[in-house]
Amino acid sequence: MAKSLLVISRQAPWSGPSAREALDIVLAGGAFDLPIGLLFMDDGVFQLTPHQDAKAVQQKDLSANLQALGLFGIDEVFACAHSQAVRGLTSPASAAPLDNPGITRLIDRYDQVITL
Amino acid sequence: MKFAIAVFSAAHAPSSRRALLFAQAALAGGHEIVRLFFYQDGVHSASNNIVAPQDEQDIARQWREFVSQHQLDGVVCIAAALRRGMLDQGEATRYQRSAVNLEAPWALSGLGQLHDAAQNADRLICFGGT
Amino acid sequence: MSTLHVVSHSPFTDSRLDSCLRICGSQDAILLCGDGAYGLQQSALHTQGVKVFVLAEDLQARNLSLPDWAERVDYPGFVQLSITYDKVNAWL
Global pTM? Predict the structure, then answer.
């Protein structure tokens, strides 16, 4: 059986290529039909904010990659509820909110973790 | 035990040296390294154009020697490498760039190699940041 | 399943250790290395009840003293920890 991998993305979308490259790991895993999960945590939850304008800072839009997750078979997409709360955000429909014990259990059930 | 080791920081970052010492200790302990995968700023750890001052450690050279000596599979992510100006002869020719800073024992390849390594290893260990 | 969390950033300038402690399980452990070793100076760390290791070279380099609630490991010890625990989560 394939080993499962959880990617924890902690970077805001505007701090260089880091957030995009974390998503690329997820999408590449999905392309190989591997069991991949994605958790947005800390500033990573800012990636989920709708209607951001990448063109304003001459960047590529990350939201297209986020929308591609489903197409790549990535169904396990979560957001850290604590990270959202302290940033005054509410959970968007694209990611299921998880409290701290929920995140502990999430990490527990994956075979491997990459936190970026 | 089979290890997949992923490096996310440049040779001058303490975490690149830490990854190297971990890898050396893993082999010394009788374990196997299925692949070293260099991603994000980790691609700079594979540069052959780093000139370290004489009284400082040359971690990029130590990586190169370690990978060569143990005939390890050292893979540098091609997308991350191109974005950061890390080119082998093939890519320098393809994109008409004047400098080559990546050569054997390193090989450019895709992110699939990270997943493949993780699938074939008992442990995936990442090093990056400071 | 147990996780070895590896933290290499100082908790005094960076939120990684805080985030790690929020989601650390009862079977988990934290390995402090690099500037993460300064986490030994944070008294809140040992009150969490999580097992704490520190990379010996980073302890020595920073002239930090080892509290009785933490344990030092060298690189072979680091390798062994990564085997003892089911997975390694490095906070890059």
Answer: 0.97
The reply to whether residue C1 touches residue A116, judged by beta carbons under 8 angstroms, is no
* CA torsion angle A12 A16 A21 A22 (round to 10): -20
For A5-50+59-115, the fitting CATH number among 3.30.2130.10, 3.40.1260.10, 3.40.50.1440, 3.20.20.100 is 3.40.1260.10
Query: Per-residue DSSP letters for B15-70?
Result: HHHHHHHHHHHHHHTT-EEEEEEE-GGGGGGG-S-----TTS--HHHHHHHHHHHT
A3 touches chain B (CB under 8 A): yes
Q: Which of A100, A114, A116 is facing C23, going by the closest CB pair?
A: A100
**pLDDT digits over A53-97, tens only?**
999 998 888 888 888 999 999 999 999 999 999 999 987 778 999
C78 in reach of chain B (CB within 8 A)? yes
